[in-house]
Amino acid sequence: MGEHVATRIDGNAMAAELHARLADEVRELRAAGVRPGLATVLVGEDYPAQAYERRVRRLAEELDCAYVCEHLPGDVELAEALATVGKLNADPRITGILVLRPLPPQVPEVELYRILSPTKDIEAVTPVNAGLLAQGRPRFIPSTPAACFHMLDTYLRSTGRDPATAYDGVNLVLVGRSNNVGKPAVWLGLQRNATVISAHHYTDQAGRLADFTRIADILIVAVGRRGLVTGDMVREGVIAIDVGINPVRDEATGKVRLVGDLDFESVAARAEAISPVPGGVGPMTDIWLLHNTVRAAAMRAHLPHPPEMTL
Ligand code: NAP
Question: pLDDT tens digits, residue range 112-156?
Fold first, then answer.
C-alpha cells in the first residue's frame, strides 16, 4: 500500500486568485472616484501583530488603497487608545479599521470595539456587527474565519462536493473561542448546518481536548500553541485547517520562522486535507481584510458592492 498523502490546501494560490479579482474591483471603484482606505491600530511590539501589520500594509499599497497605521506604545492609556479609534472613525480617507491584537491589559478590546464605527468595523467585532453575524445576516464576515471557510468551500468544490450541502450535519470542531476567530467561526459553521463543537482552554485542562478533536470531520484550530494537536488526536480522513501562528527561533541561524498549532507531519499522515503554516490561512486572511475594506468603501459611497466571496 502506498503512503498516504494529504492534499495541501494552498492558501497562497487561492489568495493570488482573489487578489486579481480584488484589483479589478478597486479599479472600478477608482473609476467612480472612490478610494478604499485601511487603518490599523497596533499597540506595543508583539511580533506576529507587527508581521501582520507589515503584510496588510504591503497589500493595501499593491492594491492602491489608502493606508494608515496608528502605532501606540505598549503602556498607552485607555483614553488615548479610544481617542485614536475616534479619530479614525472620523477620517474620511479610511473605510475599514483593524484593531490588531494582543492589546495590553489597560486597553480591554471590548472598550475599543464598543466605540468603533460599525460601518468601518470590517472585522465584525462591534456588538452590532457581531450580532448580525451571529444571526446569519452579516454586514462583514471577519477575515480569518472567512478565510477558513473560503478555503474549505474551495477545497470541497475541487473534490466534487457542493459546499451548499457538504457541511450538513458533519462534525465541525473548533479549538479556540476568541471574539475574532473562534466564535465567528462557530456562527459560520452553524450557518452551514454543521454540528459545531467549540473547544477551548478549559476543555484541554479537563483532559478532554482529544475526545472532541477525534470526532471532527472538519477541524479548525486557532489557539497559538505550537503542535497542540497531534496525529493521534485526529481521525483518519479529517479536513484540518490551521490558524495558529507561532514564531520559532532557529538556534543555529537566529532566524524566526512560523509554525502552526497542528503538528503538521503527524496530522497530515492521517488527514484527507490540511492547510499549512505558512502559506495557508495567513495569506487568505490578508486578502479578505482588503476585500472587506473595498466592500466598506463601496457601501459608504452607496455603490454596488462586491458580493461576499463566500456562501
Ligand atoms: P486568543 O485570543 O489568544 O485565543 C486563543 C484561544 O485558544 C482561546 O479561546 C483559548 O481558550 C484557547 N486556548 C488556549 N490554550 C488552549 C489549549 N491548551 N487548548 C485549547 N484551547 C486553548 O487568540 P486568537 O486571536 O484567536 O488567535 C489564535 C491563533 O491564531 C494565534 O496563534 C494567532 O496568532 C493566530 N491567528 C492567525 C491568523 C491568520 O491570519 N493566520 C489570524 C488571527 C489569529 P480560553 O478562551 O478558554 O482562554
Answer: 999 999 999 999 999 999 999 999 999 999 999 999 999 999 999
**What percent of the chain clears pLDDT 70, i.e. is strictly above it?**
97
The Å distance, Cα 228 to ligand 1 centre, comes to 11
Q: Model's pTM, two decimal places? A: 0.96
60 and 109 in a common domain: yes
Ligand 1 center from residue 178 Cα (angstroms): 6
Q: Which domain holds residue 208?
A: 142-283
Residues 266 and 206 in one domain: yes
Which residue has a Cα nearest atom 12 of ligand 1?
Answer: 176
Instruction: Assess whether the C-beta atom of 180 lies below 6 angstroms from ligand 1.
Output: yes
Q: Are residues 45 and 121 in the same domain?
A: yes
Q: How far is CA 111 from CA 127, 142, 256, in A?
A: 11, 19, 33
- Residue 110 DSSP SS3: helix
Q: Which atom of ligand 1 is found nearest the CA of 204?
A: 19
Each residue of 47-90: pLDDT tens digit? 889 999 999 999 999 999 999 999 999 999 999 999 999 999 99
| CB contact set of 94 (below 8 Å; sequence gap of 6+) | 37, 38, 39, 66, 68, 88, 120
**How many domains does the structure of the chain reveal?**
2
Ligand 1 atom showing the smallest separation from residue 48 Cα: 34
Asked, for residue 299, whether it belongs to a domain, the answer is no
Asked whether residue 21 is assigned to any structural domain, the reply reads no
Measured in angstroms, how far is the CA atom of residue 2 from the centroid of ligand 1? 36
User: Is 160 found in the same domain as 112?
Assistant: no
